[in-house]
Write a structure and sequence with these properties.
This protein has about 300 residues and is α/β, with parallel strands linked by helices. The chain is about 50% helix and about 15% strand. The strands form two sheets. Strands 3-2-1-4-5-6 form a six-stranded parallel sheet, sandwiched between helices. It has a three-stranded mixed sheet with strand order 7-8-9. α2 links the parallel β2 and β3. It is globular. The site of nicotinamide-adenine-dinucleotide has 28 residues, from α4, β7 and α6.
């Protein structure tokens, strides 16, 4: 595809590897982030540093956002030195963060009045997917704008699905997060029981992962839990935010979301302990406190016979 001028705002765990892929694909990149470290890293690789979100967007055909929450996206797009101050008519802003669908629709309508396209295009697939360009991307917005932006999204993701009008991408992502959170709870409880009853935890993960109880959470985060590795691929505070959004939508639609509410409370407890920047698998610590039992290989491990 022809070289595009791309602005990228939000160079965290996900944004940095995504921005690197766009550079490697030969696109011109201008980057902005709240902290300087990742900006300097991208500049060393050939990107240009911008001084504000407005400057990031001013000459860009596409401006991509990968920010924490709704308030951050609102500020970066609609704020004083925001993208809206400088984005060219005919250009497209693509928000790949996970935020509220309601906020996305507001931003979409505001930018549309200025002739600027807006897509909500949240992703799933984690930091590994961001590095390898294998993310799944669910897109909401105008179809024609989506088709134009699709080649850019192809650099970042393998499975790209147009879900419908503005907000549909985020709504889909929130459904995904409910599924993520509840299967994580299942994986944690299964490991707690396995540990307390003295089973070999590695074998438990292996055999469950080959049958009907298999989940991405158990297969990928189960070993991390057993190894007490709580480094973040996906930060606990971000999943708490996603579950909060799910509950807000449930409230609006009068939809009971019992499991979501339960896991949200567990994540609140983890964040209250000051551990929100750990990976989501750290929620097992809250369950371990309730159980007075720590998931541990040393307590299990039946002998090979
Ligand atoms: P992160 O906390 O690692 O990174 C966020 C980045 O945004 C940071 O570099 C921060 O400095 C920057 N930032 C925050 N406010 C800013 C502002 N006002 N202006 C400029 N930069 C600002 O988060 P992450 O893990 O990269 O996740 C980003 C988004 O993607 C979140 O919405 C998250 O829920 C979602 N997401 C994360 C994963 C994952 O596995 N980590 C997967 C899918 C989706």
């Amino acid at each position: 595809m022809p070289v595009a001028r791309i602005g990228f705002i939000g160079l965290g765990l996900m944004g940095k590897p995504m921005a690197k892929r766009l550079l490697s694909a030969g696109h011109e990149l201008k980057v902005f982030n709240r902290s300087r470290g990742p900006v300097e890293e991208l500049v060393r690789l050939g990107a240009e540093a911008a001084g504000s979100p407005a400057e990031t967007a001013s000459e860009s055909d596409y401006t991509i956002l990968m920010l924490p929450d709704s308030k951050d996206v609102r500020l970066v797009v609609l704020g004083e030195r925001g993208v809206i101050q400088a984005a060219k008519p005919g250009s497209t802003v693509i928000d790949m963060s996970t935020i509220s669908p309601v906020v996305e629709r507001e931003i979409y309508a505001t930018l549309k009045e200025r002739g600027v396209g807006y897509l909500d295009a949240p992703v799933t697939g984690g930091t590994i997917g961001a590095e390898q360009g294998t993310l799944a991307i669910m897109v909401g917005g105008d179809y024609a704008v989506f088709k134009k932006a699709e080649p850019i999204l192809r650099v970042l993701g393998q499975r790209i699905v147009y879900m419908g009008p503005s907000g549909s991408g985020q709504m889909t992502k929130i459904c995904n997060q409910i599924s993520v959170a509840l299967s994580l709870l299942g994986a944690c409880e299964a490991l707690l029981l396995a540990s307390k009853s003295g089973l070999d935890l590695d074998k438990v993960i292996e055999i469950i992962s080959s049958g009907a109880g298999a989940s991405w959470q158990l297969a990928n985060l189960g070993p991390a839990i057993v190894n007490r590795d709580f480094r973040p691929g996906f930060k606990a505070e971000h999943l708490m935010k996603d579950l909060r959004i799910a509950l807000e939508i449930g409230q609006e639609l009068n939809l009971p979301l019992l499991g979501t509410a339960l896991v949200h409370q567990l994540f609140k407890s983890l964040v209250a302990r000051g551990e929100g920047a750990l990976g989501t698998q750290a929620v097992v610590k809250v369950l371990e406190d309730l159980a007075h039992h720590i998931v541990s290989r040393s307590l299990g491990g039946a002998e090979e016979s």
